[in-house]
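Pipeline run #58 for the internal structure catalog. This entry was flagged by the ingest filter as a single-chain record with no existing model, so it goes straight to prediction. Upstream metadata was stripped on purpose; only the residue string is passed forward. Reviewer on rotation: M.T. Logging verbosity set to normal.
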Amino acid sequence: MFNGRIPFFLGFTACASAIAAAIFYFQHYLGLEPCPLCIFQRISIMVLGVIFFIGMLHGPRGAMRRFYGILLSIASLAGMGIAIRHLWLQYGAHEELACGGTLEFMLENDPLMKVVEDVFKGTGDCGEIVWSLFGISIPGWTLVFLTGMLVLSLGILFKRQA
């Protein structure tokens, strides 16, 4: 399963499908506007998708394959960290969360480092659960997805070459 370009193709397809679901189903069909942490989770999935796509085109072997595995693992873990932070904001008791502006508004009016700091503090929008399936909110499902991408990334990293 982890031979050649197949895992890169599977990873790219999964990431493209996740982004398509986020944009076309959740955002446009259901009308759910993404909060800043949702946007950062999308960015992490897009970064994964780009790395998988380049790996699919490149078909790396040996040390380069391990390099891709490391990059993919780092991107997966970063996205997982964002999703875990988002879940903590949603399921914890955080009365101090204030409603913040959109990410676009924040980027236009604040320095970049302040925007990043504010995003990770969380906003009222980030703490609100607007959709769930089997009691798991969107960042929970994102965490499940990114865990799967981490497993795939580790398979790429540690697969012995034939």
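catalog note: The CA atoms of residues 21 and 108 lie 27 Å apart.
catalog note: The two ends are 12 Å apart (CA to CA).
status: ready for reviewer M.T.
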